[in-house]
Amino acid sequence: MKTSNLTHYIYGIADNALILGQRLGELCGHGPNLETDIALTNMALDLLGQTRSYYQYIAKLSTDNLTEDDVAFLRKENEYRNVLLVEQPNTDFAYVITRQYFFDVFHFLLLEQLQKSTDVNLMAIAKKSIKEVGYHKRFSGDWLIRLGDGTEVSHQKAQQAIDDLWMYTNELFDLSTQDKTVIDAGYGANSKDLKEKYYAELTQTLTKATLQIPENKYFQDGGKNGVHTEHMGYILADMQYMQRTYPNMKW
Amino acid sequence: MEHQVDIHPKLYPILKAIPDPEIPVLSIIDLGVVRGAKLDGKHAFIEITPTYSGCPAMDMIGDEIKTALTKHNYIPDVDLILYPAWTTDWMTDEGKTALRKYGIAPPTDAITDKKALLGEERVIECPHCGSTNTKLVSQFASTACKAMFKCDDCLETFDYFKCLI
Ligand SMILES: [Zn+2]
Hints:
The complex is a heterodimer of chains A (251) and B (165). With 251 residues, chain A is mainly α. Chain A has ten helices and no strands. Chain A has a single domain (3-245), classed as Ferritin (Up-down Bundle), CATH 1.20.1260.10. In chain A, helix 1 runs antiparallel to helix 2 (34-61), helix 5 (93-114) packs antiparallel against helix 6 and helix 5 packs antiparallel against helix 9. With 165 residues, chain B is an alpha/beta fold. Chain B is elongated and about 55 Å long. The chains are: A mainly alpha (251), B alpha/beta (165). Zinc ion is lined by residues 126, 128-129, 131, 151, 153-154, 156 of chain B. Zinc ion binds at residues 126, 128-129, 131, 151, 153-154, 156 of chain B.
């Protein structure tokens, strides 16, 4: 296995956790109530913890003495491989929950497969993370049902979020040529029926929540190839400011 | 069994005396995060594993282990391992009792929580009054490893240490 392929593949997983973790972290002190605030930031912490495990592994694989901080803070926008879904803003609580649920369902299915990776490091991270992601999915799924099957306003807001974010779901399943090499070698998550399972689970939950599956068949992608939406630059500016202003600073 | 942890008898009391930074009544041994402690002359090799990936206490636990071992004239080497992943099954009975006394409901058996994850109700005993007339307030409480419950008898809220299996 070429290290560059493996690293590329790991970024495709880890960057999702980093950027979504950063998004959730923005909500610290701004949650709609104390319990939700704490839950969202706990999830942010889980995701950042998972990110660290992946980045530490990438640093270990690197031949030019990269550290996990270099990897997190010193890459350029087009070097991040996160999907567009996770960089979408915290427009309102319905968006936060919908974005989270759309990601959690995928994340759980992916980790289920990654647990079988022949790479011991990825296997270990997946086995650790999936326990946490099970809770995330339960939290976001419960809330989505509550919003959809709640008041007229909560229903309408949840439907709006679903309609707007739906077009970012298909990208979760995009694989680059390098990704495929890693998966074919048994290092990655082998996920032939992942997409089918994913949409089946979403359909089940949305039905329970009395929400409509959008009819829109247009899907937007690009994040995995480093082509991001206009929101990404702001996230990175916020996140990378300290490390770029005070190079090599440590906490 | 993955439960079996090899801890050198000379290192055991030192490690046992180190409290978890967030739940000080719980020793890191009773929490189950120490996964190995070997001794080679004066070199002590300790393996610890996080409860949750982002657990902010891990760096501190690592530092405290180093400090304690150095004080006892050992040369410490602390390694963070991820596999096998920590489970609440590794928490000792002594640890669970300490938690309850502290006002945190200890993790129940794994099957109860697995069911809860699939949407079924779980029965958690109130650590204040012992009532089982309790309900879940939030899946996440003061830390990622705890959920918040409310007791309908004594009306107090309490943390429940979630099962991870
Ligand atoms: Zn009570």
